[in-house]
Amino acid sequence: MTASRQDRSHTPSTTGPELIARARALTPLLATHAVEAERIRKPVDAVIRALEEAEIFKLMVPRCYGGLELDLDTFFEVGVALGEGDTSMAWVANFYVEHNWILCQFPAAFQQELFASRSYILAPAMVAPGGRVTRERDGYRLSGRWQWASGIMHADWVIPSALEVTAEGRPDSCWFALPISQVKVEDTWYVDGLCGTGSNDVVIEDVFVPAERSVSIPELAHGGGPGARLHAGPLYRTPMLPILTCAATTPALGQAKTAVRLFRESLTSRVLLASGLKQSEKPAAQIRLARAEVEVHEAELLIRDTIQDVCARRNTATIVDRARWAAQFAMAVERCRGVIQTVCGASGAHAHFQSHPLQRAWRNINTLSCHMVFDLDGRFEAFGRVLLGLDPGRVLL
Fold first, then answer.
1. CATH for 125-216?
2. Measuring CA to CA, which residue among 223, 241, 240 is closest to residue 231?
3. Can you tell me the distance from the alpha carbon of 186 to that of 385, in angstroms, rounded to the nearest whole number?
4. I want to staple 90 with a disulfide (CB 3.0 to 4.6 A). Which of 62, 83, 170, 329 is the partner?
5. Is the confidence at residue 390, as pLDDT, over 80?
């Protein structure tokens, strides 16, 4: 554990602008280690340490635990800055931050135990139920396999989800918190994108989880978890899905911005074989560059507008608001994916070497956009249904 992990200051001096500046200063470090992270299929130790020293993981932890207690506007800027360096590392860092927010929604007794000697936790959270849970006296018995454990390779704790049957016979999805020593990590992360996230499988075999280490996901989805009653800050009364989706969205925007920059820089040096002209002199290249710049700016504006609306309406949001936020985040990522595909398609065969940053960006964005929160058809269908006064269907909003 580094000195940073034991910082228990209850009057943190780091402001939002200062944290954003630190994140931007780390962009080159993430870019430098992106190839290595992809090769070893997990985050690079030196990058994790740098993020710890910069206090990135404290972003959403309450001040009473030594955290920074900053809001979604800072989370957005930090995530974009990290995404400009490496999509995979930004993905892991963002979810470490968001999962601290989840842990601050658990019952008070567990929070006090968890943050008694540290000001942040490193933990993956697997939202897709992957196992079985049964009630047992003052807790639960948990077993199963969970996929997509992003950040598991540097984790202290894990936060799997499972379906509990309530006393009324209704299924209720819950988060459970377990120390890393109680789970087994299986090396399954052989993928073509987001390789550097180390999102391996987690296996849990007949582990008892005390009741205070569980929390209802539907309560968090509506901004009404225990943390909303325990902590005064508005962040802890925010519905869960916009925070989760923001965590997944900003790495895409950051990488799209970098892809456009790399394309612009390459145009002045790349000479086309057939004509002998610099590519920057070709109208087609100029049009593609301009279109990419406009579309990435469009995506950024849409995300900023969504986050601003989330912060303004977090306590009064209707089902229409939540469905619209989800659709807008998904649309923004689709725009980012289109931007990266546009610049890759105009960058020649060299962009298809696996070591080329545009090739990595292309693979990363196509993997990232497969996350359930970016199911564009599903998000638009749910939004359309609620606009017509219908039930949104079986979708997390």
1. 2.40.110.10
2. 223
3. 40
4. 83
5. yes
Q: Which of 322, 306, 124 is nearest to 241 (CA)?
A: 322
Q: For the chain, where are the E strands, in sequence order?
A: 125-126, 131-136, 139-146, 157-165, 171-176, 178-179, 184-186, 201-210, 214-216
363: three-class secondary structure by DSSP: helix
Count of all residues that appear for the chain in the document: 397
226 touches 106 (CB < 8 A): yes
What angle do the packed helices 240-267 and 283-313 form, to 10 degrees?
160
Of the candidate ranges 158-167, 185-194, 272-281, 355-364, the one whose mean pLDDT is the lowest: 272-281
pLDDT, tens digit (0-9, with 9 covering 90-100), for 186-202:
999 999 999 999 999 99
Contact status, residue 215 vs residue 225, Cβ threshold 8 Å: yes
Q: Which CATH number among 1.20.140.10, 1.10.1660.10, 1.10.20.140, 3.40.640.10 corresponds to the domain 239-387?
A: 1.20.140.10
pLDDT in the model for residue 169: 67
Helix H, strand E, coil C: the string for 25-72 is: HHHHHHHHHHHHHHHHCCCCHHHHHHHHHCCHHHCCCCHHHCCCCCCH
Per-residue tokens: 203: 């296996």
The reported pTM is 0.95
Measured distance CA(139)–CA(68) in Å, rounded:
32
Dig out the tokens for 186 from the structure. Answer: 């299986």
For residue 271, pLDDT beyond 90: no
Say how far residue 14 (Cα) sits from the centre of its chain: 22
The amino acid present at 122, given as its one-letter code, is L
Question: How far is it, in rounded angstroms, from Cα 233 to Cα 59?
Answer: 13
pLDDT for residue 12 is more than 60: no
Three-point CA angle 255, 300, 315, nearest 5°: 120
In this prediction, residues 392-397 reach a mean pLDDT of: 88
Residue 254: count of CB within 10 angstroms of its CB: 26
Q: What is the pLDDT of residue 186?
A: 98
**Superfamily of structural domain 3-114:** Acyl-CoA dehydrogenase/oxidase, N-terminal domain (1.10.540.10)
Domain 239-387 in the same topology as domain 125-216: no
- The domain ranges of the chain are 3-114, 125-216, 239-387
